[in-house]
Records
---
Amino acid sequence: MNRAQALAIALVLLAAGAALAVFTARGGATPVAFDGTVRARRIPAVVLTDDRGAPLRLDAPAHGAIVIAGYTRCTDECPLTLAKVATALRPLDHRTRPQAVFVTVDPVHDDPATLHRYLRAWDNTIAGATGERATLSRVLVALGAGDGRGPARDHDTRAFIVGRGGDVRAELPADATPATITAALRALGEEHT
């Protein structure tokens, strides 16, 4: 093996290692086929319960959705993220704006009434969602937000943009500004006009 071949092999191994590190850091949530292609993530067709006790599905939101995973007893990231999302929703036409949903990672404590009281701080512009732990886990895995089985305090702090077909379109970091969130939601709305 000559030096060029050795370098090429080293670069391929380095790239594969980097890809594996990213995949592992994300909890292995992005499905990857054996040929290395990334398959789209889609929200499963499951029924959750919203904060008013009504059925809620995220696999086909009429205008898309922004989904946040968290829990009502969170004292730091959740309130901050929800405040940013509520602010980001204000400039959008309420008739056509994407749905905003706060999916609990703590269904033992976050029943519909608890979620509704908690989300009142943001004028209930964000819907709460709860359900059976296994059902919530399927949604969280599809988002790429873990499986919700660990301690609630270890939840994912990103916000997820979901298209009308239930496909996860984008992930916004915890430090995304309201303006960035509004822009992402507007872009989602423009896809459907």
Note: DSSP finds five helices and seven strands in the chain.
---
Amino acid sequence: MPLHEIVAILKSLPVDETLRIWDRLSPEIGRQVLKAFDDHLTVMILDRLEPTRSALLLRGMDSERLDQMLERLSPAVADDLRKVLAYPPDCAGALMDSRISYFRPELTVTEALARLRAQKQRGFRLIFIVDEERRLIGMVGYSAGSGTG
């Protein structure tokens, strides 16, 4: 599919509905698509993807734009991305996601469920709610089979 068609399709859909598509795009195509997006849309996408996926998309981005994107992300997400980006691209640390899944309290239930459904990791029994410093502020039971908490 031509790049301009990919850009048009992804721009036309709500961000949460595109997360599975972003997971399937090659990093190179993903980088090219992000270049066509404005900063606001780019930040919305990076904020919702898993950090290892976001890091793949950010690698190769010019350092000035990378810094701008990291500054616009929430502190917790930016911190996670900085940690992943600190690894050389060809080592295991750059590819693995050892984080537990956690959510910030400002996410709506719909957004949290969309993120859970988009994750490859399955079998969650607890969802951790953390503040901006990633301190635990609560836990919610989750039944992955039913999609409800």
Note: Residues 144-149 have pLDDT under 50 and may be disordered.
---
Amino acid sequence: EMKKIFILWICLLSTCYCFSACVDTLVVHSSVMNKDVKNVVMLPDNYFGKKKCSFPVLYLLHGAGGCYADWIRKVPELQNYSDMYNIIVVCPDGGGSSWYLDSPVDSSYSYETYISKELVFYVDKHFRTVKNPKGRVITGNSMGGHGAFYLAFKHQDIWGAAGSISGLFDLRSFCGEYDLSKRLGFIPQDSVNWRKNSVIHMLHLLKISKLRILFECGHSDDFYLSNKKLHLALLKLKIPHDYIVREGNHDWEYWRNAIAYQFLYFYNFFSIEKVYSKECDKCK
């Protein structure tokens, strides 16, 4: 444990002489899954120059079949966004196809507990973060889009805003794909698991919620109808949200463009919630 922290600290010290966010791999032990999990962490350049400031955190989730390094490999300009908006970015590993659930049929996949409890606790303990929902947001692409809403809807005491890019919100519509049956069991035997773990059936959690919600999907994406269905359901319940549709597919070209808008959205959220002090905000 101390060795991992020391290696990370050496990385942090070295970035005092550079002008972009420090990107490092952070290894966190999960007690609930009894294994080490890798995560990318990005610290804005101002983190090192403003040592009395605390910073908000964006948790950014990858899609099915991906890993913790997907976002920084495919969208290296995340470092610029981290610097521009003074936001710490954490990209957890989601076990390939965990769907960010605590699987009811396979206890070795307990990624809801890992991210919402173990990882958030670790990040808040080891970094100068804003330690309340006003300073934490979560988003992701594809499986990560579902995961971001799933985690934020269930844990509104942790995240104050949630985004999704090309997410799938009714898991039953793709029950034979993406390892979903390995996480939730087989339909119809385990249909209850599928229903209660699909975001579209969790909207009752938002009726008295202050959670800020943003999601979008490309019009040519296979998950477009899932997004439209969620949008209409939220409208019917009069739950405030921002919903964007653009031409595009289920690919990194679309996600790379969308994440730039989401960073701005989250920066505005943090600004409204006054998590930035005058000393720390826009201090380049």
Note: The first strand starts at residue 22 and ends at 30.
